[in-house]
Recover the amino acids of this structure.
């Protein structure tokens, strides 16, 4: 990691949660109170979740695409008992990075 900029080094060993995101955005945008920024971030996440629940794809240009992937029911072996089981069908959220996001993390 010797060649990374100080800004990128800061994120290597750091996990960013929603509170960190709100704090950072509130510091960058002094015109907005922290509670306003939190409401906006919550609204964005709620809209993404609602769209995914409705089966919609969420594309954010340059950042990436969120989608719901459906997995069919299939037979499997229980890892402990080695008993044959049927895994029920289920859905999962998948994320595909956008080109600009990939380019920015590879630099």
């Amino acid at each position: 990691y010797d060649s990374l900029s100080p800004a990128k080094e800061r994120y290597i060993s750091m996990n960013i949660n929603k509170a960190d995101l709100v704090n950072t955005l509130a510091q960058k945008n002094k015109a907005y109170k922290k509670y306003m920024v939190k409401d906006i971030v919550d609204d964005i996440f709620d809209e993404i979740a609602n769209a995914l629940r409705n089966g919609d794809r969420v594309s954010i240009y340059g950042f990436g695409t969120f989608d719901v992937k459906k997995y069919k029911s299939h037979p499997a072996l229980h890892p402990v008992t080695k008993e044959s089981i049927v895994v029920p069908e289920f859905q999962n959220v998948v994320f595909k990075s956008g080109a600009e996001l990939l380019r920015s993390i590879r630099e």
